Structure formats: structure tokens, C-alpha cells
Amino acid sequence: MAKGKELYEARCTLCHGPQGDGKGKAAISLKLELPDFTKKTYWENPNIEQKIAATIKDGVKGKMRPSPDLSPEDVQSIVLYITQAFRPK
Predict the structure, then answer these.
(1) Which residues pair with 60 in a beta bridge?
(2) ∠ at Cα 74 (11, 54), nearest 5°?
(3) Percentage of the chain lying above the pLDDT 70 cut
(4) pLDDT, tens digit, 9 for 90 and up, residues 31-47
(5) Could you give the CA distance from residue 40 to residue 89 in angstroms, rounded to a whole number?
(6) pLDDT value, residue 80
(7) Which domain holds residue 20?
(8) Average of per-residue pLDDT values in the chain
(9) Does the pLDDT at position 63 exceed 90?
(10) Long-range contacts made by residues 27-36, C-beta under 8 angstroms, separation at least 24?
């Protein structure tokens, strides 16, 4: 969890925001609509954790650069952090 938080803060916060709501400074300035990890509806996809991992690794054309430099363990650490920190209980 600690490693995931560290990686999220270093690599994701600028766009996804410190609260995981998709309202980071870069997202606002670039007028990007990013997913809100704090919304219950975001988590309704039964494969959402795999989708998050794939998005981190592969990116999203025009919105998010891929991160091929991250190890599978790093990616899973970020997924775990996002899930634990932002998923509504």
C-alpha cells in the first residue's frame, strides 16, 4: 500500500488529483474528463481492477501516456492503493 501511494502521488496525482476524483491540476488545465475513483458507479465494472492495471501500463491515446517502465508489481501497488484509498465502502 505504501509503495502504491508513493507511486500514485508521484505519477498520477497531477491529473487524477490527490483525492482520486479526476480533478488534478493538469486535468483541469487540459480540460480532460477523467474517471472519478470516488464514485460508486466507477467500480461497477466487475473487471475494473484489471482495466486500471491495463490503463496504467498501456495508457489511453490522447489522454494518458503508457508506463512501460513500471514493473508488474508497481502497477499492482498503484491499483491496490487506488482501490483501498478511493473506492467507496
Answers:
(1) 64
(2) 80
(3) 100
(4) 999 999 999 999 999 99
(5) 9
(6) 98
(7) 2-86
(8) 96
(9) no
(10) 32/63, 34/63
Q: For residues 22 and 74, give the distance between their C-alpha atoms in angstroms, rounded to a whole number.
A: 21
| Diameter of the chain measured on Cα atoms | 32
As a whole number of angstroms, the distance between CA 5 and CA 83 comes to 11
Nine-digit cell string for 3: 509503495
Cα 39 from Cα 4, distance rounded (Å): 20
- Report the distance separating Cα 89 and Cα 86, nearest Å: 9
CATH of the domain at 22: 1.10.760.10
Confidence of residue 12 (pLDDT cuts 50, 70, 90): very high
- In sequence order, the β-bridge partners of residue 64 are 60
Q: How many domains does the chain have?
A: 1
3-state secondary structure at position 84? helix
- Rounded to an integer, what distance in angstroms lies between the CA atom of residue 12 and that of residue 19? 11
